[in-house]
Amino acid sequence: xxxxxxxxxxxxxxxxxxxxxxxxxxxxxxxxxxxxxxxxxxxxxxxxxxxxxxxxxxxxxxxxxxxxxxxxxxxxxxxxxxxxxxxxxxxxxxxxxxxxx
Length: 101
Known about the structure:
Elements (H helix, E strand, L loop, with lengths): L8 H14 L3 H18 L6 H34 L18
């Protein structure tokens, strides 16, 4: 995750907060993220090349991984505590074919 200095965050947060108020649909988020990536490629001195494409692929993968780690994982853990885990593959339970282990 890009843990940038706290003093560098306000100038970015201000823009993101405003954009977040205006975007209401999944497609709009996709569009905004795509435009940010394209903007990076257009402004980068080397333009669209292997390195810059890898840079952006890495950013997108890192964002996804961090979102899963910090948001999805805790949410899933909460739901497991509330509802119990899917545990059919645990020892002594019926497996996916209906056979008891």
